[in-house]
Backbone:
């Protein structure tokens, strides 16, 4: 590594500040260690060695105050909904939400139940919907990469369609 | 003579008249007994004294005419089972609590209260167990009607446009 650096000449790179900010955000999406049902098992597996989220800079955090991404993995009941909102409100901006699995997307298997929330988009703004019951780790990895693409397109300093 | 037949005979001999046991039968080492609602806690205490000390389950079910409470207990030594049952009229969903007899009945009665709305007189802490405290209604009743909104969250999800439901 040292040799490589010495071999390269001094460089100046030009970039737009917005793009630089977006670029700096995409590779450290710490996710909240939070799961409510069987999707949580796949979430744990995604953090394991086979898919290895660590190589994308994604590490689980046990507190929402450190987290950038909330992966809602599992069924959310009405009783749990207020807790989910509380966790989301504690996360610092910018924050993203992945709705993982059918239950989080629309209530899934339990849509006709009296106690289950019919989709977490009634509660939080969702960035990526991930279908599946439960989705495999590869699918969750795909969702996280989709989220990276979305963050890459984000513009904070200049709002509006002109620059997109 | 089987274990439950012996127990049944003892129960009938000692308590049959007092409890007005209207229906009973014994099969496969299991005893089925229907008691009047007013004698519910008394009958359970008697059953406990006879050695049925292991609480297996405690449940409610709705029938067309009445709401049934079922207590399933087991003899710890002999292994016989006893189903104690009472039928509560739907306009008076009230029974005596068994939490003083079987301490495991405490949370089961809270669950029955939560989902069926049967009130247990003498229960030490009769709050909802599973649903949030501000919930309206008892959802396992046949006449339960779900509200359109709960705490600002819609309880319905409209079908996607262009898709058949």
Residues:
């Amino acid at each position: 590594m040292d040799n490589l650096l010495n071999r390269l000449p001094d460089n100046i790179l030009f970039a737009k500040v917005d793009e630089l900010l977006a670029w700096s955000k995409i590779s450290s999406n710490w996710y909240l260690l939070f799961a409510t049902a069987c999707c949580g098992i796949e979430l744990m597996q995604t953090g394991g060695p086979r898919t290895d989220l660590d190589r994308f800079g994604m590490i689980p955090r046990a507190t929402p105050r450190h987290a950038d991404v909330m992966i809602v993995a599992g069924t959310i009941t009405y009783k749990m909904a207020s807790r989910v909102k509380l966790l989301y409100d504690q996360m610092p901006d910018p924050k993203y939400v992945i709705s993982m699995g059918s239950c989080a997307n629309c209530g899934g298997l339990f849509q006709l139940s009296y106690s289950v929330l019919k989709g977490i988009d009634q509660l939080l703004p969702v960035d990526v919907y991930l279908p599946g019951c439960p989705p495999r780790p590869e699918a969750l990895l795909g969702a996280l990469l989709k989220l990276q693409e979305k963050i890459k397109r984000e513009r904070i300093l200049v709002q509006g369609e002109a620059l997109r | 003579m089987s274990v439950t037949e012996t127990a049944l005979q003892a129960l009938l001999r000692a308590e049959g008249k007092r409890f007005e046991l209207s229906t009973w039968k014994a099969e496969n080492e299991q005893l089925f007994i229907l008691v009047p609602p007013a004698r519910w806690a008394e009958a359970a205490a008697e059953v406990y004294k006879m050695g049925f000390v292991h609480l297996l389950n405690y449940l409610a079910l709705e029938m067309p005419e009445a709401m049934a409470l079922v207590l399933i207990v087991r003899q710890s030594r002999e292994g016989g089972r006893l189903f104690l049952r009472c039928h509560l009229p739907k306009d008076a969903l009230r029974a005596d609590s068994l939490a003083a007899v079987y301490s495991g009945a405490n949370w089961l009665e809270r669950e029955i209260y939560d989902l069926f709305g049967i009130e247990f007189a003498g229960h030490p802490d009769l709050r909802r167990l599973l649903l949030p405290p501000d919930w309206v209604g008892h959802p396992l009743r046949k006449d339960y009607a779900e509200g359109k909104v709960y705490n600002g969250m819609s309880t319905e999800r409209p079908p996607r446009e262009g898709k058949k439901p």
Observations:
- The mean pLDDT of chain A is 86.
- Chain A has six helices and five strands.
- Chain A touches chain B at residues 78-79, 81-82, 106-107, 111, 114-115, 117-119, 122-123 (CB under 8 Å).
